[in-house]
Design goal:
Largest sheet: 3 strands, antiparallel
Radius of gyration: 12 Å
Strand content: 15-25%
Shape: globular
Distance between the termini: 21 Å
Number of domains: 1
């Protein structure tokens, strides 16, 4: 599964992330937390600046369960050809 390592990192560290970054958007690559941002756009831009075209996770820190989406698809950066 894509981003499996990043999702596992998020889940393993969720309690600390909630304590430190509740309602922020975090950027994770592998076992590295880049930072926490007020908006998804700021988080995504920081991820692009830091990691370029490498795949990274942007996720809101909240106690609610979340459906994961592909941000690039959501913003039209990748065009799916069906």
């Amino acid at each position: 599964m894509a981003l499996e390592e990043e999702i596992e990192y998020f889940e393993r560290n969720k309690a600390k992330l909630l304590a430190d970054h509740r309602e922020k958007f975090v950027v994770i690559l592998g076992e590295r937390l880049l930072g926490a941002y007020d908006t998804v756009e700021n988080a995504y831009n920081a991820g692009i600046q830091a990691f370029g075209d490498r795949q990274f996770l942007v996720r809101k820190v909240t106690s609610a369960d979340q459906n994961l989406t592909n941000l690039a698809l959501m913003h039209g950066l990748i065009h799916a050809h069906l």
